[in-house]
Design goal:
Elements: E1 2-6, H1 9-18, E2 22-23, E3 31-33, E4 37-41, H2 46-60, E5 66-75, E6 85-87, E7 90-95, E8 98-99, E9 104-105, H3 109-112, E10 118-121, H4 128-134, E11 140-142, H5 145-154, E12 159-167, H6 173-200, H7 226-241, H8 246-250, H9 253-260, H10 265-280, H11 282-294, H12 296-300, E13 304-307, E14 316-319, H13 325-337, H14 340-347
Parallel strand pairs: 1-4, 1-5, 5-12, 7-10, 10-11
Antiparallel strand pairs: 2-3, 3-4, 5-11, 6-12, 7-8, 7-9, 13-14
Helix pairs in contact: 1-6, 2-5, 7-10, 9-10, 10-11, 11-14
């Protein structure tokens, strides 16, 4: 059974009319059930969407096989016009002045082919300046998808997202209010028609297993531990969802340079996984660049710095070889210049995008 989530009842009204839903006695209002679906009205914003979706999945996760977030979104590109229907590929999130490190990709074949990623904003995005900043990472913006996708990921349940563009590139508060009052019925009907069409394509709705790809594992330039093999496969699966094949990766100039270095197979594997991680999450590239800038005083003193590659923990490991008093003075001076607080701020998401 699938769980359909909507921010507002207006977006769901065509679905409520098309299927026989009955209210479910639950901790809060807004949860309904038919013979085929659960339907949840989450309310607007990532916080309430996260709380309600997690609560429903915690209770009914043994029944729910898939989560679909359906509703309106704003355009971040001139290519998406009002009333365009979009199946979302990847969900990102923007909170205040920072981007969330984690992103979530749909596992559905139809969504894989979509070039459209969605940015969930923790506040309404109305200005051209805000839209331009977010457009570097996604082509549409909403208020709930990332939270719903995160909840589904927590319970290891696949998700999909169907959005209809509710406004042009430069919406106003009045435009949004107009949609709620006047255009919700039309948008809801269009969403329902697309949803029904896709539901009939039963093969497209299946989460297809991705065959294990050994193109890197069989390359003698690399040496993988068991845990690294699992990490590699997870990354390749994620990149396939973005339309990037292992074959194209192997031809990538950066990977070729890694293979040609004088480093050991173990070091090459570490660099390979780092590169694949950057391709999977482009935000990580900006985080790493910011960290390298902060750590440059230490690098100048030949101090080797390592940190959590997943950016989850704020530890910093330093290693240095001192062979003279002059070396020691360089280390002392570099530590005076280095700011651990600035390092920690970057890991907390305070960096320029």
């Amino acid at each position: 059974m699938k769980l359909l989530t909507f921010a507002h009842r207006g977006e769901a009204q065509a679905f409520l009319a098309a299927f026989v839903f009955k209210p479910v006695e639950f901790f809060f209002d807004g949860l309904l059930k038919s013979d085929e679906y659960y339907l949840l009205i989450t309310g607007e914003g990532p916080h309430t969407a996260s709380e309600k979706t997690i609560t429903v999945l915690a209770k009914f996760n043994e029944e729910i096989t898939e989560v679909l977030n359906i509703g309106v979104a704003g355009s971040l590109t001139n290519k998406l016009k009002k009333q365009d229907l979009v199946w979302v590929r990847t969900a990102y999130a923007h909170h205040a002045e920072r981007l969330e490190f984690k992103s979530f990709s749909s596992l559905n074949p139809k969504d894989m082919k979509s070039p459209n990623d969605c940015m969930t904003a923790f506040s309404r995005v109305l200005s051209n300046e805000e839209k331009k900043k977010l457009s570097h990472f996604a082509s549409l913006v909403d208020r709930e998808l990332w939270a719903v996708a995160s909840a589904a990921n927590l319970f290891k349940i696949p998700f999909r997202a169907l959005k209809i563009i509710s406004d042009d590139l430069t919406p106003t508060e009045a435009d949004i209010c107009k949609f709620v009052k006047e255009e919700a019925p039309l948008f809801s009907e269009k969403l329902l028609t697309e949803f029904k069409t896709t539901e009939t394509e039963t093969e497209a709705l299946k989460v297809l297993p991705i065959e294990k790809e050994n193109i890197f594992l069989s390359d003698k330039a690399f040496y993988f531990t068991t845990s690294q093999e699992r990490k590699l496969q997870s990354m390749l699966d994620g990149l396939k969802l973005k339309g990037i094949s292992p074959e194209s990766l192997m031809k990538n100039e950066s990977i070729q340079k890694i293979k040609e270095t004088e480093k050991s197979p173990k070091d090459k594997t570490r660099l390979l996984l780092l590169f694949l991680g950057d391709q999977l999450n482009p935000i990580a590239v900006k985080i790493r660049a910011s960290l390298e800038e902060i750590l440059s005083p230490l690098s100048d003193a030949k101090i080797t710095s390592t940190f959590d590659s997943a950016f989850e923990d704020d530890w910093l490991n330093l290693s240095v070889r001192i062979q003279s008093s002059r070396d020691l003075e360089k280390v002392k001076n570099s530590l005076k210049i280095f700011s651990y607080e600035d390092f920690k701020k970057i890991l907390d998401g305070q960096f320029d995008v």
